[in-house]
Write a structure and sequence with these properties.
By secondary structure, the protein is of the alpha+beta class. It has a domain at 3-97: 2-Layer Sandwich (Phosphorylase Kinase, domain 1). The chain has five helices and seven strands. β4 and β5 form a beta hairpin. The structure holds adenosine-5'-diphosphate (ADP) and magnesium ion (MG).
C-alpha cells in the first residue's frame, strides 16, 4: 500500500518523499525518468510524479490545474494536457504517455520544453507542461490550491 501518497503535504521534505518512493516501489511501480523537479514512477498505464524539490510540487499543482481547466481540449497555444490529478501528498498521478513518436508530433508539442509529449489513446498529449505553464497557469493555480479543494483528488482521470 501507499498511505503516504494520500497524506496532505505542500512543502518539500526529503524524507517524506523518500518514503513515498519506497512505498511505490513496494507495490511494483518502477522509476522511468527524472527531470529537474520530479521523478516519474510507472505501473502499467499509471504514472506518479514524485517531487525532488519545491518546484516539483508547484509544477504538479500547475499541471493538475491546467488539466482540470482545459480537460481534453487545447489551451490558447493548442497544447493538450495529459489527464492527471493532484494527490494530497503533492505528487501528481497521470496517465502513461508513450513518448516514442517524435516524428509524428505536431508543432505545438515540438514547441513545448523538451517536446515532452506523446500518444495516449491515439491522441497527442503533453506529459510535462511544467516549463510552459508558468506564465498563466501557475499564477491561477495558486488561488486554486488549498485544502478546501480536496474533492478534486477524487475526480476521475
Ligand atoms: N505521463 C508520463 N508518461 C510517460 N513518462 C512520463 C510521464 N510523466 C513523466 N514521465 C517520465 O518521468 C520523467 C520526469 O517527469 P517530468 O514531468 O518530465 O518531470 P520534470 O518536471 O522534473 O521535468 C520524464 O522525463 C519522463 O521520462
Ligand atoms: Mg520533464
Amino acid at each position: 500500500m501507499t498511505p503516504s501518497l494520500f497524506k496532505y503535504n505542500r512543502d518539500y521534505n526529503y524524507s517524506f518523499y523518500g518514503k513515498i518512493k519506497k512505498e511505490l516501489q513496494s507495490v511494483k511501480f518502477e522509476e522511468i525518468g527524472e527531470g529537474c523537479s520530479r521523478i516519474g514512477y510507472r505501473r502499467g498505464n499509471v504514472v506518479v510524479k514524485v517531487p525532488i524539490n519545491t518546484y516539483g510540487i508547484k509544477y504538479s499543482i500547475a499541471e493538475a490545474f491546467g488539466y482540470r481547466k482545459f480537460r481534453n481540449n487545447p489551451d490558447s497555444k493548442e497544447r493538450i494536457y495529459a489527464p492527471c490529478r493532484l494527490l494530497p501528498s503533492g505528487c501528481l498521478m497521470m496517465v502513461y504517455v508513450n513518448g516514442e513518436c517524435y516524428n509524428g508530433l505536431p508543432r505545438w508539442a515540438l514547441n513545448i520544453d523538451g517536446a515532452q509529449a506523446g500518444t495516449y489513446k491515439g491522441r497527442i498529449v503533453a506529459y510535462d507542461m511544467s516549463h510552459d505553464t508558468v506564465d498563466n497557469v501557475l499564477e491561477d493555480s495558486k488561488l486554486w490550491d488549498n485544502k478546501s479543494h480536496h474533492d478534486l483528488f477524487h475526480s476521475d482521470v
